[in-house]
Amino acid sequence: MDDEQLGQLGYKAELKRNFSLLSMIGFSFAILTCWTALGSSLSSVMLNGGPAALFWGWIGVCFFSMFVVLSMAEICSAYPVAGGQYSWVLLVSKLSPWGRGFSYITGWIQLAGLLCMGSTAIFQFGSFVAGMAILNNENYEAKNWQVVLICWAIAFLCTFINLFGNRILNRINDVALWWSLIGFVITTVVILAVTDGKRSASFVFTSSVSDESGWSNFGIIIILGILNSAYGMCCYDAPAHMAEELHNASRDAPRAMVLSVIIGFFTGFVYIIAILFCLVDVDAVVSTNTGVPLLEIFYDALRSKVGASCLCSITLIAQFFAANALLTEGSRSVFAFARDGAMPFSKYLCKVDERLGVPVYAILVSTFFQCVFIAIYFGSSTAFLTVLSIATVGLYVSYLNPILAMMICRRNFVPGHYKMSSLIGWTANILGSLYLIFCIIFFFFPTEMPVTGSNMNYCIAAFGITGIFGTISWFVTGRKDYIREMQVTSIEGKAVEEYSGTDSVSEKKGES
């Protein structure tokens, strides 16, 4: 049934369906790992808004993220294809003239976001390793090139697993789910149990910081602090890109998306409370010489370098699972985009190796670009922060575009396994899109004032380059090559079948 539905959308089933609902939840949550993402970026929120912005911001971000993921899940249920967001724009718009161009640009933005997010996950692994080395050897000073080499080593290990471990990838993600959940419980319980002099409830729930970032507008300070939570609640589109490798994709891919957000909210909520109550020395955490705020919290709690390193290692392995899953997700998006004729050397990038069962060239290209983005850290740590910004903005824009297309074309939308009522659907679409627009705008703001070359937010420049590249590419080659004739016929055939009750697509092909 899954392959038949995929055929109706114009695609041949080339990837094996090895994933179950549980392994897909593990895959998605391995990427999401909200508790590790929130713990890894404490410094920024302590300078912008403080504890109250983190706690209440997390609740607000997760509340509105539910509208986003419900909107995306409904579309995914109707169109469970590896392309995800850019494919949804195309299919929801029924191949309208604006839909093809809009889909094409969405695809490039989506790829930029996914590949940059993969780079940031690998970089976090490298920075955690360097931080642990500094903690255990006070005379050691981590060099940028050392961090980059660690990251590249992890990237190559993830590549090896993705190339040769496809048969056990679902099992790896089962382990990732339980590792993340058990690791969350262990680290939370330990720091709460051993920390002396815990913070008061008023510090956790009501205290704010307004004089550290240089901004004079308190509202903007709080918003910039909330964006830390928006980074933590990201990447829940992952099951969509693995839909062609999932049994009962129309039903279970949307389930995995929604459940990963729910699990992420509860784990992140508990973890935020725990680390804020255990945040004994804010200045030490923000200015730690390890460069890893979470590691400093562990050390302050345990007063043991070995103990802090052990707790950090739990987070480190969770980061490895995230990096591995993000390479899988990114490579499937490259594969899908190339399959639609949107990339240079598409015929190679969309080829699935019969023996390995994976798109080998798509994986290698994804690894290459992740390594290139990480190499930016050779020259400037500030410039590398742009990669992190592009990751979040790119994904949020890719979430927004299919929801906008859905609002334009909702009247003609043919649902899959799941369907929201008109009232709930419109409410989710409108609130979800407004939230995404809000976040996207403020992701371009500088986090410190006055703006200098060292603290400038270059995200808007990098994002603009991505958008310009996608637009130029559309007019040069995209209009001609994007979406093969076979796919156009199939998708139009599906639309005719649904609205006119004619014979099925497969029967039409048989007759021809």
Helix content: over 70%
- Round the mean pLDDT to the nearest integer and report it: 86
* C-alpha termini separation: 23 Å
In DSSP terms (H or I, runs of 4 or more residues), the helix count works out at 23
Alpha-beta classification:
mainly alpha
For this structure, the quaternary state is single chain
Radius of gyration: 23 Å
Number of strands: 0
- Characterize the main sheet: none
Question: Explain this structure to me?
Answer:
This protein has 512 residues and is mainly α. Helices cover 74% and strands 0% of the residues. The protein has 23 helices and no strands. It has helices spanning 2-8, 21-32, 34-40, 42-47, 51-78, 85-92, 97-136, 144-164, 169-194, 201-206, 218-232, 238-241, 249-277, 282-286, 293-302, 305-339, 346-349, 360-379, 381-409, 422-443, 459-481, 485-500, 505-511. α7 (97-136) crosses α21 and α18 (360-379) packs across α19. The longest helix is centred in the first third of the chain and has 40 residues, at 97-136. It is globular. Mean pLDDT is 86; it is low at 484-512.
Descriptive keywords:
23 helices, mainly alpha, single chain, globular, 512 residues
Itemize the secondary structure elements and their pairings.
Layout: H1 2-8, H2 21-32, H3 34-40, H4 42-47, H5 51-78, H6 85-92, H7 97-136, H8 144-164, H9 169-194, H10 201-206, H11 218-232, H12 238-241, H13 249-277, H14 282-286, H15 293-302, H16 305-339, H17 346-349, H18 360-379, H19 381-409, H20 422-443, H21 459-481, H22 485-500, H23 505-511
